[in-house]
Amino acid sequence: MSRTLYDLIGLGAGVAFILALKGLSHPKTARRGNLIGAFGATLATLVVFFYANPGSSLPLNNLGWILGAMVIGLAVGVPAARKVEMTQMPQLVALFNGVGGGAAALVAIVEYLHLGAEATTAEVIFTVFTVIVGCVSFSGSVITFMKLQELMTTRPVIFPAGRFIIAATLVGVIGVGGWVVAALGTTPLLILAGLSLLFGVLFVLPVGGADVPIVISLLNAFTGLTVAASGYVLDSVLLIIAGTLVGASGTILTRLMAEAMGRSLFGTLFGAFTAKPQDASGAVEERPVRSGSPDDVAILLNYARRVVIVPGFGLAVAQAQHTVRELADLMISKGIDVAYGIHPVAGRMPGHMNVLLAEANVPYYQLEEMDEINPTFSQTDVAIVIGANDVVNPAAENTPGCPIYGMPILKVSNAANVIFLKRSMRPGFAGIENELLYDPKTILLFGDAKASLTKVVSALKAL
Amino acid sequence: MEPIAVISIFVLAVFVGFEVVSKVSSTLHTPLMSGANAIHGVILVGAIIVADHSTTNLELGLSVAAIVLATINMVGGFVVTDRMLEMFKGNKK
């Protein structure tokens, strides 16, 4: 195969990736777009086997090893992707991103070992960049995965002199990076990889659970950039296009998410370093709340004209998405206007709630974004908040100085009645009291969200 | 490759990425993350290239590891994105 044909096919795969991202502009075209992207990736992978790189011949050297490794990758990746629960999607994305970053770093290390003294300065600089960012992406993603899977605490991990240690590690990474460029040696490169892995861990540890989605998105963009840099070293147009696309799209998405949380990206990432460790005991003051029974809730719903359902991560934990849809369908059959109000960062990943509700066959046009739904709360009779807390907490609007102040929220407090489905009075991720819980128009329904909803459904059926 | 060609491709791809993603509906942000994730799995191509010209055991071992990781990233990423998007398809207004 000629070099021109090889590059043209690479360009075709790059276009397929653009179409894949473009398809996501609407749920109707999204699936086809993703299949086009998968086709492009498959094509690009097949073509490598038919083109000999300079200094090499066909069939490829080490062909058995290459094919064997791909089979192992398939045997691990496909079942993981098929079996994962929709609630665990953030962890899986974090993990897949991490292995991608790890692969990019390994590719850079091998290429560096291979080129040796023949490498140009530009190639060495790109290699050093790929090793640093790829390693940070790998170890950072692993820590993110552990936080989401609750293999470790989801609270920010803050240690004494943390800021100093992190800054020192970063200086070390940059210093050793410079050393690799100047001195060219295997040992400095391996030290660089080790330090970068350490930096990835230190970088993610202080990030609190609620901010983890932003970190996943940022690390995703990082991995994209490493792939683009590898494209330069390996002389591949495709890798440059694909990596840059992911880097750019990841950056935009990270910014959108930071905006949805009402803070700067910098503040999210480095806020924890300046924050004081939170008081774990969190003395909960005893104040009266109005708790209700499933029957009370059913009666309230039966006489409502418009109901808005606000889901949060608690819905995912309880796997209550199917029961919610059952309740919504029942209300619709009674002529009640039902909509879902989706906060952009509800759940552990942007759009996480949409995926869960789509799994339960909730039509996507019933899912309304924050800006659409907020003006309608004043005409809403009942807002049902299921396992969400911070995204409806009025403290974000009226308590300057609280950690979520400035975050745009769903204004459920404008609805005539508010029902909270909660497991306990424990505050949400951010650990802030929610005044709305004590409001006279609020009814609390304690218990597992799925069990509570099932009871409400049967009570409503009986009416 | 000519540096100017590389820079041109890079800059243009940045703008394409910005344009395409700013039109993505927030309903689909999770599939977007996982789809973009799958796309960077194309580093598999790079891993195969370096495995081809590996001459020492160290190089070969590292590139085999890279192929395994990149395959997981690419194939797993596209499969899981497809699974999610399939759920969005049946909703007709």
Automatic annotation (TrEMBL), chain A:
Cite the InterPro entries for this sequence. Answer: DHS-like_NAD/FAD-binding_dom, NADH_DH_b, PNTB-like
Query: Which Pfam families does the record associate with it?
Result: PNTB
User: Which EC class, in a word?
Assistant: translocase
Cross-referenced Gene3D superfamilies: TPP-binding domain
- Look up the coiled coil feature and give its residue ranges: none
Show where the NADP transhydrogenase beta-like domain sits.
9-458
Recorded catalytic reaction(s): these are: NAD(+) + NADPH + H(+)(in) = NADH + NADP(+) + H(+)(out)
- The membrane-spanning stretches of this chain are 6-23, 35-52, 64-81, 93-113, 125-145, 157-181, 238-258
**Membrane-topology descriptor:** Multi-pass membrane protein
Q: What is its EC number?
A: 7.1.1.1
Recorded family membership: Belongs to the PNT beta subunit family.
Q: Sum up the protein's function in the record's words.
A: The transhydrogenation between NADH and NADP is coupled to respiration and ATP hydrolysis and functions as a proton pump across the membrane.
What is the name of the protein in this document?
Answer: NAD(P) transhydrogenase subunit beta
Q: Which organism is it from?
A: freshwater metagenome
TrEMBL record, chain B:
| Enzyme's top EC category | translocase
Which residues, by range, are in coiled-coil regions? none
Q: Where in the cell is it found?
A: Cell inner membrane
User: Which Gene Ontology BP terms does the record give?
Assistant: NADPH regeneration
What is this enzyme's catalytic activity, as reactions?
NAD(+) + NADPH + H(+)(in) = NADH + NADP(+) + H(+)(out)
**Pfam families linked to this entry:** PNTB_4TM
User: What is this protein identified as?
Assistant: proton-translocating NAD(P)(+) transhydrogenase
Q: What is the lineage of its organism?
A: unclassified sequences, metagenomes, ecological metagenomes
